[in-house]
Design goal:
By secondary structure, this protein is α/β, with parallel strands linked by helices. It folds into 2 domains: 2-174, Ribosomal Protein S5, domain 2; 197-420, 3-Layer(aba) Sandwich (Rossmann fold), CATH 3.40.50.300. It has helices at residues 39-42, 44-54, 81-91, 127-136, 149-152, 166-174, 204-216, 230-236, 246-259, 283-287, 297-300, 316-320, 323-328, 371-378, 383-387, 400-403, 414-431, 445-451, 456-469, 473-489, 497-504; strands at residues 2-11, 14-25, 30-34, 63-69, 109-111, 114-115, 121-122, 141-145, 159-163, 220-223, 274-275, 288-289, 294-295, 305-308, 330-335, 338-343, 347-352, 391-394. Helix 17 packs across helix 20 (473-489). The protein is elongated.
Amino acid sequence: MYSRVLTSSLYGLDGELTWAEVDAETNLPGFFMVGLGSQSVKEARERIRSALENCGYGFPPKRITVNLTPANRKKDGSHYDLPIAIGLLLCLGFITQDKNSPDISDGSCAFLGELSLDGRICPVEGVLPMVMGLKKHCVKTVIVPEANLAEASLVNGIEICPARHLKQVADHVSGFDRISPRRAPEKADEPGDSLDLLDIRGQESVKRAAQIAAAGMHGMLMIGPPGVGKTMIGKRIPGLLPAMSREEQLEVTQIYSVAGLLKGDLPLIKSRPFRAPHHTISQAALIGGGTRPRPGEISLAHKGVLFLDELPEFAPKTLDSLRQPMEDGNAVIDRVNARFTYPARFMLVAAMNPCRCGYWGDPVKTCTCTESDRKRYVGRISGPFLDRIDLQISLSRVVYKDISAGERPSGSSTADLKEGVIRARKMQEERYEGLAVNCNSQLTPSMIEKWCVPDGKGREILQKAFERWDMSARSYHRILRLSRTIADIDECPDVKAEHVLEALQYRFPEGLFS
């Protein structure tokens, strides 16, 4: 006998239709699984065998063949357990489908879930993108583990039937006891106490740079001696970013669903991501990949901030692997028989000391590094990587009168600076309506020529800087993008000379990388 049951497979963030075909013959007993399944898929044989026996169905001595189609694409995950088990029950005649229900073999209902040995249905990763993919292919109903109900409920336009046990699903298919579609009330992650830039004494010029970076999603590198506030500023930059739209929330939530980082009771991520990996991180963990390809830190920071503290301590090869994602906004993981693409449109914020001891150029403490030591230290950061960071700011020591003030300081707060960010984002949203970009850092050269052309005096200043600093074409375009963002904060429709001058001061800290 033959049966087939619909399920889904994940390729990156795309949920694609997959059929679990089951055939049982009176022949030498065996249980064979084909269709390019990974180890977790092949191990489903033992889970399904035990689940059927412990649910009282038994496991007859027949030659059973399971094929996951399309057979030319790699399958991974434990969510194939439930559809294969239902296909087996139908194929072996333990259950028959309710005649009053739509035929399962026509693809109107899909099944997702991992089986425990006693038949309980366990939660699985990637339910949100898989359910979204099923909806896109006009599937009407999907049966999911009850623990994944809140996550699946984020998708409208498809019936969600939560199940706890294999027998419950079998009764649903037979028509004895139908599972009622339902949805969990939507909850979201609750933002904690936000860190305020007002906590930082002094460093007003750096706060201004952070505002510009947040307004246009520009990369930012802070350079200064230990203890001047680099890490504190980096951790407070997410507070400057505007709230995510519903579309952005779902996109970020899909990434965390695939990575298995969603909380069952809080499935929707509303706060901007902030990821701060340690400098010992591997290239695969940062970009994504592994034996089972998973999103890396740059994808987990999508629509948010990736903070790299102590930048030169990261492996040079690891840092250089960021160059393509910083330009394209996605991470591509290639395998022999598959390609996985994860979005990675993040705001890079980095911090570093000017040398190994940290005091090169400091007016108070003497640097103990030799010239070759210093060049070796900063040389761990390649020129092409550095060229992709829009703002490069030097921080100096805080003066005593700022840090010793007893009362709360009167500098810029996060709320004050955020107003300028929201103004700039609104202008960008109106300007780029209907286009594939939504902020200035994503502008292509043709878009730069249209919207970022400075006035006459600004062009003169830029020409002199270009010739004096031997700028690359990439640096030239990045300064124009930065100038456009500064003009947006000032709510100025045109890029003027003062905007170009301010943009130039955020590039190339004097003498550090020479």
